[in-house]
Amino acid sequence: MSATIRDVAKKAGVSPSTVSKALNESGAVSADTLKKIQQAVKALNYQPNARARSFATRATMHIVFLADFPYDAAFVNPHLFEIMRGVQHSLDKKGYALIMKQADVKSAYAYTETAAAQHQVDGFIFHASVVSKKLASLVARENIPHVVIGRPNIESRMCWIDTDNQLSGEQAAQHLLDLGHTAIAIVNGKADDMISWRRLLGAKRVYKENGIDIVQTQVIQTTSSITDGARAVKKLLHMNPRPTAVICANNPLALGVLQELQNRGIRVPQDMALITYDSYPFAMFSEPLMTAVDINMYDMGQEAARLVLRKMRHPEVQIQSYTTMPTLIRRETT
Amino acid sequence: MSATIRDVAKKAGVSPSTVSKALNESGAVSADTLKKIQQAVKALNYQPNARARSFATRATMHIVFLADFPYDAAFVNPHLFEIMRGVQHSLDKKGYALIMKQADVKSAYAYTETAAAQHQVDGFIFHASVVSKKLASLVARENIPHVVIGRPNIESRMCWIDTDNQLSGEQAAQHLLDLGHTAIAIVNGKADDMISWRRLLGAKRVYKENGIDIVQTQVIQTTSSITDGARAVKKLLHMNPRPTAVICANNPLALGVLQELQNRGIRVPQDMALITYDSYPFAMFSEPLMTAVDINMYDMGQEAARLVLRKMRHPEVQIQSYTTMPTLIRRETT
DNA sequence: TTGTATGCGTTATCAG
DNA sequence: CTGATAACGCATACAA
After folding, report:
1. What dotted CATH number matches B62-163+298-325?
2. Which of A55, A189, B223, B326 has CA 20 to 30 A from A43's CA?
3. Is the dihedral of CA B258, B260, B265, B266 positive or negative?
4. DSSP one-letter code for A88
5. Same CATH topology for A62-163+298-325 and A165-294?
6. B84 interaction partners in chain A (CB closer than 8 Å)
7. A6 CA, D14 C1': separation in Å?
8. Which of A50, A100, A119 sits opposite B88 (nearest CB)?
């Protein structure tokens, strides 16, 4: 069996509590005994037992990341994992470990309830995909340290962090405007998609501010596939005035548009500029590479981790929300 | 404060140890007292404290997944996370939690040493990217329950799990053979890439068994980019006899080949069949969709989790290695 | 500055 | 089948 704090104490000729203080830098220990303790620690290769420690300190040093990781999630939605990477990084620096936990809306509630009651973890990071009204009230009632990634689509007092999609739209539009594009078109995703909708709003806003109204006919509504993008090109070219730039709501649409334009001999960006949102999965592979307004998911994860830890230290402060900034990544289509 | 096992005992009129036995189904408890205990548990909403529990049982119920998750890992190498999903799923079913931990070769050793000594986790899953000779001997010396994902590129007694790349090559070749392709070409990745090399070996082997030698001139060596693939097409078309099918070592190469073939008006699969390995990132998006020999990373993760758990229960059995099966996914290029 | 005493909440041993 | 008792290993309030 491995050495305990008592063994160290005995070897150093002091009491266990003194050893504890010395190792945790709590309380004061004379330089002399400190040295003796350190020697004893080294001699015995003492390592404090984490299980006993967490029992005594009432802290697991674990934070759980709860999300619905569906089939093929890593390929379909890698963003989730980029967030996790960020979370892990931030937590690690503070000595915390990250637990990955799959859940759906229902099981997320059940898990949280027992995990909190049984003190399995010190804090929770929920992906918006698993939060519910019930979860929100549980978290409020039990005062559970948490952060939601993505804005919960229910009203609640939960603490959340999200990206500003409207701002993304504004940045995309502003970029095109800066390049002199006054006649533009927007190939939009599904109509009920809040993200697409907010981005659209932002883009319209910028143009309006510059005295240009983006009217209904300039917005093509699709269902967000590559072929949808390709199909949209026809409408695009029939617009009057014919647009010199197009904003595509997501990568598949953008790729479809891009390829169809090229098939028709229309050069990008010379004849038609193109900008999209996110860089996955095509923007970094397409020919030419696509300019995109991107969100740094890794940063977002880091920030989320910092938020839970802060919530844990200061339960009183009600940090309600935090918004991350999008970045324009200019590549070759503008 | 929440109720403890003593509160339950008091309320049920029994001793704490009896309650423990009842709840853990260890030892025997009369139906009568069991009922009383259950009622008390319900009345007090008793939940056992996980920290105290792990202290007493000497088990954290945590397994750590250690890998080098580099910059943009989620986009560049989603496979890693698909493995993690599988691991999580298997562990969860057995009541274990998965900890995600970033490390490089150096820090993996350091972390493992202290995590094991401090009893932070019950088992380790290492990605091959972080194992070293030092780690291997540490693990052997301290008898640390573990599994390596991917074959370690050092000699050791570590327990590992991997996919059979040679078999993948055989499957790809066999598929083409079944379709009647006797003249084929292979566009290979980097020469020093063991994976490409093993697949190549497998493909050659199948053809040889069928009396067809794949000679040097039929194998095009590249450095695995899309443009490399496109460039390879020229050589491909100059081969004598001209191949009717091509095996591409990976997705970028395959996409390059596919697009260049189409640019030259060569129809796929009618004029030239194409098969590749893995489905990421292009096989499921390209036009036409690419036939591929694939590895189910999720399954591999599940198996890895089962292996560590088994190692923990039976430290004596020396499970040395485990190999997962590749699957042919026939899409539209063959 | 150091040591003593006690608590953290559960499980396991063993006697009844 | 049940209960008293002793760990499990560390942290901390308080006394010295």
Report:
1. 3.40.50.2300
2. A55
3. negative
4. H
5. yes
6. 74, 100
7. 21
8. A100
